[in-house]
Amino acid sequence: MPVLVKADETPENNWLIDGFDIYIKQITKTLHLFSNTHFDPITMSENIIRVGILNAKNLAAADNTGFSDPYVVMRVNHKKYKTKAIKQTLDPVWDAHFDTKVSPKKTPTLLSFTVWDKDTFGRDFLGEVTIPFKNIFDRNNQGVSDGVPRNYKDPSNYEAYFQLAKRSEKNNVSGDLCLKFGILEDHIGDVKRYADAWELLNP
């Protein structure tokens, strides 16, 4: 006489049930992991890099008064950003910042910063700084080269001074430009997250 077996007790159905249980456990574990690490799509979409042009010190004098009217032009990804001109000073404070979107398909190669003296009829060159994009975080740890990307608002993310360079020996150039770089988010995230995102931008 054949033995009657319930439908859900066949070997095939037991295998399906076991497989479904494993799948549910994996999903639960993954969601728990994401919730513990504050997962978000920063590593998979566009990121915003904030660039701070804070101040300069000991600039060259371009005017007969012994001072300059300096401003900065930043170029990145074929876009141009400009600070306001500060009148009659060699130690201007701009406290300006500009945001630029970057992604694995739209990563700039260089960031250039040119300091100019504003004149009524033209401008005078006061120096420039050029930084490879992949190196913008090299000096954000109080001048120490650790290369760790950080949130712009992170208290441990510091500005750094960069020496202004000449274009030719005839240029009257001196002083340093103070810059700050950071990933822009409302909340300061884990440094590991930013490092993963940075690696995608700079493979």
Automatic annotation (TrEMBL):
<dbReference type="InterPro" id="IPR035892">
    <property type="entry name" value="C2_domain_sf"/>
</dbReference>
<keyword id="KW-0479">Metal-binding</keyword>
<protein>
    <recommendedName>
        <fullName>C2 domain-containing protein</fullName>
    </recommendedName>
</protein>
<dbReference type="GO" id="GO:0016020">
    <property type="term" value="C:membrane"/>
</dbReference>
<dbReference type="Pfam" id="PF00168">
    <property type="entry name" value="C2"/>
</dbReference>
<dbReference type="GO" id="GO:0005509">
    <property type="term" value="F:calcium ion binding"/>
</dbReference>
<dbReference type="InterPro" id="IPR000008">
    <property type="entry name" value="C2_dom"/>
</dbReference>
<keyword id="KW-0106">Calcium</keyword>
<feature type="domain" description="C2">
    <location>
        <begin position="29"/>
        <end position="146"/>
    </location>
</feature>
